[in-house]
Amino acid sequence: MKVIGFGDNVADVYLHTRTRYPGGNSVNFAVYAKQLGIPSAYLGAFGNDEIAAFIRQELTSIGIDLSRCLQRDGENGYAEVNLVDGDRVFVGGNKGGISTQLPPVLSKDDLTYMKDFALIHSGCYANVESELPKLRRLDALVAYDFSEESKFRTDDYLGRVCPHIDFALFSGGHLTEEEITQLASRVRVYGVDGILVTRGSRGPLFFCGGETYAGTVEYVEPVDTMGAGDSYLTAFLIHLVQSGWKKNQLPSREAILSGLQKAASFSAKTCLIDGAFGHGQSF
Prior knowledge:
The chain is α/β, with parallel strands linked by helices. It has one domain: 3-Layer(aba) Sandwich (UDP-N-acetylmuramoyl-L-alanine:D-glutamate ligase), CATH 3.40.1190.20. It is built from 9 helices and 15 strands. The strands form 3 sheets. It has an 8-stranded mixed β-sheet with strand order 4-1-9-10-11-12-13-14, with helices on both faces. A 5-stranded mixed β-sheet has the order 8-7-2-3-15. Strand 13 (205-208) and strand 14 (211-214) form a beta hairpin. Helix 1 (25-35) packs across helix 8 (228-242) and helix 8 (228-242) runs antiparallel to helix 9 (253-270).
């Protein structure tokens, strides 16, 4: 089993400590999978600046396959993070830089390479919606992160993305349970088999096969919550695939329940380190 993150990469730049960390939804997925013992890769576009070199260096040291990545002339993505009233919040950045301005267009060679992967993960900030139909030619399951912004929950956007994916993730800490249920119903219309909605300390809800599953969280005193949702998603997805989930086939109830628990434990550990997965560099 191998998995791949397809999309953006950024440096999370912590202004209050003058430290930057590698990150980005697709990168985090690849790294967390590697931490769980799964061979993983990342496919995306890097810039040609200092931040790009830093991220590539750290991902290579972790053992992430970057062999199909592109390097383009331009500024790599970064997000500025600061400490506001005790919480780390995003305060600026360049909206993904070159990785979203000129995202990869999947070639025949790329798709041949991706045939070896059981699971592909991407997200709404990667600007790769046009490439998702190509992934449907593969046997891999496709997961997609819609984040928390309402613009990624419109009928137009769901209609562009959902027919080409198997698993949808939403951040729904600001939504009521009724709103979450309605959202899941809208997504299910497009044939999406699994819908996970994280709700922070309230625990996630997972919709699958007409059933609703309530997950739990493991409470820790967090050092940094960066990457908590990504790590939860990664651990949950990998457990489902390892338990036999395949395209057009629902995971078992037992796999779902045990996967939700494993994901909670893994996500809690992520909250005990700085950055999404450490590897900080002072600047």
